[in-house]
Amino acid sequence: MAAPAPRSFEPKSAVNLAPPKDDPLPQDYLTKCDGTQSGYPTLVAIKGVVFDVTGNSSYSPGGTYHVFAGKDASRALAKSSLKSEDAVPEWSDLDDEKKTTLNDWFTFFSKRYNIVGKVAGAGNT
Q1: How far apart are CA 30 and CA 45, in angstroms?
Q2: Could you read off the pLDDT of 48-104 as tens digits, one per residue?
Q3: CA pair distance 120, 24, nearest whole angstrom
Q4: Hey, how many other C-beta atoms are within 10 angstroms of the C-beta on 60?
Q5: pTM
Q6: Residues in a beta bridge with 115
Q7: 3-state class of 85 per DSSP?
């Protein structure tokens, strides 16, 4: 998994995004939003900001990026890792190169997916 190229942030086709929300979402709710529970959206958080990735099969069970679903996957995205043990919110101890990669992923997501809230009590923003 490579970080998006700096100029590839724009989606291939136009995406109509809703205005971002900053409603607090409890961690236990985010955990339920992993694509396995009926009636719940599929969500991925980055730096405490929650994106709705429902409808993208890559985040569904069996999908390449399902490891990120229902979690704040900041560290894994910064490290370009698909390991479940890396899909955690802590990222502040990473080097500048990995922090830049994380910021690139945040930009990539923000141009494609609705921001539906923030992880309640997140200390990694």
Answers
A1: 8
A2: 999 999 999 999 999 999 999 999 999 999 999 999 999 999 999 999 999 999 999
A3: 5
A4: 18
A5: 0.91
A6: 51
A7: helix
